[in-house]
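If you are new to this repository, start here. Below is one unmodified record pulled from the training split, so you can see the exact layout before writing a loader.
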Amino acid sequence: MEGSGKTPVFDHAEHQHIRYNPLRDTWVLVSAHRMKRPWKGQVEKPPEENIPRHDPLNPLCPGATRVNGEVNPEYDSTFVFDNDFPALQPDSPEPGVSDHPLFQVRAATGVCKVMCFHPWSDITLPLMQISEIKNVIEKWMELIWELGEKYPWVQIFENKGSMMGCSNPHPHCQVWASNFLPNEPSLADRCQRDYYKKNGVPMLLDYANQESQRKVRMVVENEDWIVVVPYWATWPFQTLLLPRRHVLRLTDLTGKEKESLASIMKRLLTKYDNLFEIAFPYSMGWHGAPTGIHLKEDMNHWQLHAHYYPPLLRSATIRKFMVGYEMLAQEQRDLTPEQAAERLRNLSEEHYAMKKQEKET
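And here is the target side for that same chain:
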């Protein structure tokens, strides 16, 4: 007690502290007591729910005409096409030699693709059948094979919800392949390589084994995969999806692992939606061993994993902002990873929309 002269016992749920992120070689400030503060800041608009199943004017729908005049096929599963507004293109002139070390420039080439998950606009991954999610995974694998032959990095990512900058509600992701290793995977490569040299085991394989034993940050698990709120999480309900065995890339998955991956993705994303009973916004993406010229290199320090970064904090309308201290000093979070994991873990795996339908019928 205050004034008693006794040193207070540390409680990670009450006392601020910093945690190390070994994947980025950075620290995050955890300030759980800040969840008690009143909120008078920005309130977001909840995601739109009444989305038409098919809109002939939506460029991602089957049979629709895109801005370049091309007409989409009447697809009934996944559909991949070249992005009509690509950030990377296959050809670009060399910029020449930099005249000063402070003004370096290099050529950037690549391809950008859009991949639709399903022909319906009013469905998302947690509402899809496991077989349909498996089709998505298999298409991801095909794209890694195809683009990874040439390009050293193939980034699969999904921005879900307008809060994450998604301009179209139709279920889809993007795939960008580049002739360079981007900043985040380059940093992850260095950190995993250093850990492997020091400890003789892939960092994230070791981490998955540790979290499987400790359980406190576990959200869902099955025989082949685990999902945890990582010990070093920055975003309130951030999760990390990891295989239990050593896997370098998506293309290395067995048939059984594809099936169990589809299952655990559906379970996780159902819990996300159930948290605030909305189509939960997030940015997610896969990281695996680099491809292209790196395919012949020893990449055993790598472990396949997927990151999920959702912005919501207190409710469907209150988000976490990465501003001020986070931009100028270091990352900070309020809710502890253990508290976030417990909330997600205790949620139903039956989607709230399905429960509503059952009540109405």
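Two things worth knowing about this chain: The chain is about 25% helix and 15% strand. Residues 322 and 328 are 10 Å apart (CA to CA).
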